[in-house]
């Protein structure tokens, strides 16, 4: 289970490096994508950094599950939701940069990640008994 999150994490980190190449070559241009504070440029930066940020969250999940020896259906669902968040956050960011109408889909990665973290905390509390 946590192996999938490790693969997702390192794949996302690789995509983070790759997705930074083109913007990194053009960031010095003041008017690029409408300027530094434009919607398109800000949401592209968010997509780029979300590869790394959620990738590290997936690594933290895998280490937590391994360290605490967490198992079960709740942990499996949490694993899947973290991967869904990993895929959909940068995807929706880049789609939103291309067409602003896609911004209405941000609930998908947000709900996935909030659900994943909530389930993980519940599994940790249930397993360790520290939350009682």
Write up what this structure looks like.
The protein has 132 residues and is mainly alpha-helical. It has helices spanning 2-19, 21-26, 39-68, 73-98, 107-128. Helix 1 (2-19) runs antiparallel to helix 3, helix 1 (2-19) packs parallel to helix 4 (73-98) and helix 4 packs antiparallel against helix 5.
What key attributes describe this structure?
132 residues; mainly alpha
Taking pLDDT < 50 over at least 5 consecutive residues as the criterion, the unreliable ranges are none
In N-to-C order, the SSE pattern is HHHHH
Average pLDDT over all residues: 91
Radius of gyration: 17 Å
Give the helix tally: 5
Number of strands: 0
The shape is elongated
Find the structural class using helix and strand composition: mainly alpha
How far apart are the first and last residues' alpha carbons, in Å? 27 Å
Largest pleated sheet:
none
Q: Which bin fits the share of residues in helices?
A: over 70%
Strand share of the residues?
Answer: under 5%
